[in-house]
Amino acid sequence: MLDPTTPLQGVGDRLASPPLPVEIKGLVYETGGKRVIDEINATIESRRITAIMGPNGAGKSILLRLMHGLIAPTKGEILWAGRHADRPMAYRQAMVFHRPVLLRRSVAANVSHALGLRGIGRDKRAICVDDALRLAGLERQASMPARVLSGGEQQRLCLARALSLDPDVLFLDEPTSSLDPASTLAIERLLLDAQRRGIKVILVTHDVGQARRLAHDVMFLHHGRVIEHQDSQDFFDNPRSEGARAFLSGGLVL
Amino acid sequence: MKFHRRVLFGLGAAFLLASLASTGFAAEDDFIIVQSTTSTQNSGLFDYILPKFTEKTGIDVRVVAVGTGQALKNGRNGDGDVVLVHSKPDEEKFVAEGWGVKRHDVMYNDFVIVGPASDPAGIAGLKDADRALAKIAEAEAPFASRGDDSGTHKAERDLWGQAGVDPTKGSGDWYLETGSGMGATLNTAVGKHAYTLADRGTWLSFANKDDFEVLVEGDPKLFNQYGVILVNPEKHPRVKAEKGQAFVGWLTSGEGQKAIASYKIDGQQLFFPNARPGT
Amino acid sequence: MTDFIDAFRTALGLIVTLDPDLVEILVLSIKVSLSAVVIASLLGFAIGGALAVYRFPGRGAVSAVLSALMGLPPVVAGLVVYLLLSNVGPLGVLQLLYTPTAMIIAQVVLVTPIIGALTRQACQDLLEEYDEQLRSLGASSSAIVATLLWDGRYRLITAVLAGFGRAIAEVGAVMIVGGNIDHVTRTMTTAIALETSKGNIALALALGIVLLTIALAVNASLIWVQRLANRLAYA
Question: In CA terms, which of A226, A241, B92, C71 is 20 to 30 Å from C27?
């Protein structure tokens, strides 16, 4: 089942295509007596880049974590190509967090450790680490302690680590919100490259410009509900909902 | 990097194994454990006589020095082969209850009442120990008691009884119960300018005397008899009866008795052998 | 005051001449305490790491007990081990009472809660940062424990040093289960207690000074090993 066009060394049973569509059915998540995700029903078909947008507190990060299986929904379900997520499914996903989480180890060891957790043998790990660091332009920093890297480098390393796992689906939670333009651009290049290789990218972002540059479809959340979900061209040119219009024009979304 | 980590790990493991091997599991069996009192240890008697016994028999003697009460308790648990203590009624009870085989007199010394040179209760030179204690109680002058159920503590309580005084009424006030060994109690007494009852051996070898002196001595009531008992192997099969008996025999033999008599500090004999031959 | 001056002079004399009796009890002290700390570290890392990561009923209670045991009086630890190892105790058949092994066991009892509780705290702090990332990477609970222990290594070294400090300095436990037998179970601390009770205050203080010096040296060398290991790991 290995895809011969994959430029990275394959990691396990890489499928030719991501396990799509993602079907979200009646999804509810409550915490501390508050309903943060309120009956979301959605289907993500696109094999390209999906942006999740919305004002603060709309439930974007929670939705991402629910999809990735980090938290369990109060009600409802998420189906990947008609299947519930299980461990093999989880192994076909990776996630980059808002704030880079790096181990207190070298740059290379951070990638290697992640590969080790997925059961990749030592010899193969070394090759994957080299590839991943080269892709992210971090090969010269390989032996440096990861936590002394700059913010942009740290996030690039997190992305390189996620990509080294050769996922079918990649989640990102505002990966560039605290980065300078050059670092943001580097991340975006890596994402476009990943998408071209067939990886499904689901990205939470506040940055309208970034969504325009990257996304093929946009899911707009407000108060824990999906207000609208359509192709990005249509979304940006002709938003249907009041909330989205206000959001895109930089107004207050109430 | 991997190599170095392995070297460090290997060193650690090797050290652990080496230290465990060299400490715990040495299969040496040629020793006996003697449960004894702090007075015999602190006086230095054991350091003097035990090498003579070991030289003759090849048996190493390991002394655990605690109070008489605890020594007998440990003996009762079988955690020792021989007990050497100084509280005759308790020793006889120990044997009567079957924990010990037979009690032998070994030696005696005497207790002395020591105190600061200023002698606030004015007991210096009294020939009557209980009279001296009565005066201390009357003056409510500080008195440090072992308070640990040791042989010395038992002897001290007997003296208070004969003086007709219950010192525990002044407990914490002028009557200070240290709950410690002889040496520690002497340190407390010196620090608090308190009188105390000590065995002469420990007193003579005690190095922190300050201005303290022997104030009362020579009363027959201050007689301090030591006895030795082999722990009963019928109660505790792991007791090394043969080697323990060898030690008991040696202590009460002419040779052991001579060794005890020849232990001196500053020319003063500390213990007086009085084993009865043939017992 | 003269005691202090005497003490320093005596301490210096003991060290310079490598007094054989001193060397013997010093070596025993270090052997016993280091062995105890190595064993307690293995136990403490496992217990602390597991308490930080695994969720099970009574976990909070276990953590609380572990923390409370950090303050376990050495005499109590000594008594418990004495009762276990005594000839009338359940482990009497092993014949370990009044041996260095008994002292190691007692110190393991004393030190494991310290290393365990500090390890748990270190791992828990790291877990707050790492939890989602590690679960996203698909780490099993045991892999999370291993990751936290390695990444918390600096704090674990501090925990180990705290444990060593406790072990090398305590007298209550080794006195009871070791018996302070000359040439067999006499350690620095029991020797200090003995000399104090003999009224040899200056000698006791001198031994104390030597003990402190050794503790300092062990601390320094462990920190040095840690730095070295760290440098090599990133070389």
Answer: C71
